[in-house]
Design brief:
With 421 residues, this protein is α/β, with parallel strands linked by helices. The protein has 2 domains: 122 residues, RuBisCO large subunit, N-terminal domain (Alpha-Beta Plaits, 2-Layer Sandwich), CATH 3.30.70; 285 residues, Ribulose bisphosphate carboxylase, large subunit, C-terminal domain (TIM Barrel), CATH 3.20.20. The protein is 40% helix and 18% strand. It is built from 18 helices and 13 strands. The strands form 2 sheets. The protein has an 8-stranded parallel beta barrel with strand order 5-6-7-8-9-11-12-13, surrounded by 8 helices. The chain has a 5-stranded mixed sheet with strand order 2-3-1-4-10. Helix 16 packs across helix 18. The longest helix has 19 residues. It holds the Pfam family RuBisCO_large. InterPro entries: RuBisCO (IPR033966), RuBisCO_lsu_C (IPR000685), RuBisCO_lsu_C_sf (IPR036376), RuBisCO_lsu_fd_N (IPR017443), RuBisCO_lsu_N_sf (IPR036422). It comes from Kocuria rosea. One of its GO terms (molecular function) is ribulose-bisphosphate carboxylase activity.
């Protein structure tokens, strides 16, 4: 029977030995230390601290997914469920990661090892505040925007001079866009330091708001040295900024949790680098695991890739990513699933069909910046495409209808970004 204070993990494993024995080796490595009892490993230690294999589901024989010291032609695959005592971990995120996704990837007996899911005890979840703003707080800071939130990335992503940057932000803010963000590559370069970007962007956004009445949020990338993280956050807040961005896989979950402890604005969680531990089906961790930990650490927005995107995940996997984020996790607020990578007017329809929710932030770079009538038309066309998607109206029909009523933004976007464009 499972201890309600234990951590339950599901892994995909491959080994030449019996899958149950392989799972027991892994469980021993990640808890009391060995598969074979050693002096000092008393019954008390095993009872209180040893991880236990609860279930093994054999999946048959197949070629090995990963290299190792030996090179067998075939290995035994299985899905296994392992229970880790919370007493070993406490409520620390770094210790949790080390326990459930640490040395086990290096075991020579394993020719695949992937953490597919994690079920955390309520005590662990309750020990972490989770997002401070989440979906409701983000909407509020955007002026109570309804439906899908529309955002974009400053393009070109690097290399702009201060004046060029100013003009890009001005045009986007005047288009009443909901969110603008720095690219993950844009941190604090000498040619356009963070301090100047913050000053210029907040000035332009305030000026645009006086005209449009719409409070655009800017996610400033404060990724960088850990010692300066608080200073960079404070720089944004003191200038009136409404959001900061952190490249979570690079900085680490403990850095995100520390930022959450003093942050006064939403935390936009980028995932650059995550695919290194997620893309190979026989290695690393699944997105559904990572998002739970990033949520507990305090991310208000989390990137999920996008349907029809330029990245590797198929649409059904992206949909699963989104649904996993929208699934309740204890009493924490729900973060904003953030779509990116190749988003344009053709993707709202499939996205809504797969997910059935508008609690999303869609980031469209070229889908806005490359609109033939300018960014304002790009933003408007995306909003119109989402309205059509929710109403079940085919995109071309909606575009024709808008054009008939005098607004050709959606029609021009369909011509530019539609199939065969």
């Amino acid at each position: 029977m499972r201890d309600h204070r234990s951590i339950l993990c599901t892994y995909y494993l491959e080994s030449v030995i019996d899958p149950e024995k392989a799972a027991m080796i892994m469980a021993g490595e990640q808890s009391s230390g060995t598969f074979i009892p050693v002096p000092g490993e008393s019954p008390r230690i095993r009872e209180r601290h040893a991880a236990r294999v609860l279930d093994v589901q054999a999946l048959g024989s197949r070629p090995p997914s990963l290299p190792s010291r030996a090179t067998p032609e075939r290995v035994n695959a299985a899905t296994v469920t392992v229970e880790f005592p919370m007493e070993n971990v406490g409520v620390d995120l770094a210790t949790l990661q080390t326990t459930v996704a640490g040395n086990l990837f290096e075991l020579g007996e394993l020719y695949a090892c992937r953490l597919q899911d994690i079920d955390l005890p309520s005590d662990f979840i309750a020990a972490h505040p989770g997002p401070a703003f989440g979906i409701p707080g983000t909407r509020r800071l955007m002026g109570g925007v309804e439906g899908v939130m529309i955002g974009t990335i400053v393009k070109p992503n690097v290399g702009l001079s201060e004046e060029e940057f100013r003009l890009v932000v001005r045009e986007l803010a005047m288009a009443s866009i909901d969110l603008i963000k720095d690219d993950e590559l844009m941190t604090d370069p000498a040619y356009l330091p963070l301090e100047r970007r913050v000053a210029v962007a907040t000035e332009e956004i305030r000026a645009a708001e006086q005209i449009t009445g719409h409070p655009t949020m800017y996610a400033f990338n404060i990724t960088g040295d850990l010692a300066g993280l608080r200073h960079r956050h404070d720089l944004v807040v003191e200038a009136g900024g409404r959001c900061v961005m952190l490249n979570v896989p690079v900085m680490g979950l403990p850095a995100l949790a520390w930022l959450r402890s003093f942050a006064e604005v939403p935390l936009h969680g980028h995932r650059a680098g995550l695919a290194a531990s997620m893309r190979a089906p026989g290695l690393g961790i699944d997105y559904r695991v990572w998002q739970k930990l990033a949520r507990l650490a305090g991310a208000d927005h989390l990137h999920v890739s996008g349907l029809g995107s330029k990245f590797y995940e198929p649409d059904d996997q992206v949909s699963t990513n989104i649904r996993s984020l929208l699934t309740p996790l204890g009493n924490t607020l729900t973060p904003v699933p953030t779509l990116s990578s190749g988003q344009n007017v053709t993707t709202p329809g499939p996205t809504f069909a797969h997910v059935g929710s508008t609690d999303l932030l869609m980031l469209a770079g070229g889908g806005i910046a490359a609109h033939p009538d300018g960014p304002g038309a790009g933003v408007r066309s995306l909003r119109d495409a989402w309205t059509a998607a929710v109403a079940g109206v085919p995109l071309q029909e909606a575009a024709t209808d808008h054009a008939r009523r005098g607004d050709e933004a959606l029609l021009h976007a369909v011509h530019s970004f539609g199939e065969g464009a």
